[in-house]
Amino acid sequence: MKRSKFIKTCLIAGVAGPTIISMMEGCSSVYYANVSISGKTMTIKRSEFIEIKKEETRQRTFIAVRNDAFPFPICVYKFGENEFVALSLICTHQGCELNPNEYTLTCPCHGSEFSNKGNVMEGPADKELEEFKVTSDDQNIYVHLN
Description:
By secondary structure, the chain is α+β, with helices and mostly antiparallel strands. It is built from one helix and 13 strands.
């Protein structure tokens, strides 16, 4: 390979590589669950965490909910049978809507990254995400809105 072609290939890979990785992360689809709201409590059926594809059943690790009652979605992560964390999808840096995935939430505006428990992993954000109190019973998960 000629030196000029090698340099051109390296430059293209250097620019395209991170873009492709970013696009692949964005391909993981976010499931928006059906919810009901009564007063300041949002009710989500536990079955919303079950995904059935081609007769194969698997547990979702997180779901998102969107409702006219609040301006941004909320993401609910499931860590165990009765352990849930509900986080606002508003970046604490400048208010952009976050992109959730299995382990992190990322800000498309300035690159802040948060853990699936709302802790800042990468700035420029320096405050944790807003977390909502969560309770549950055998059938439902209840997110108590502030």
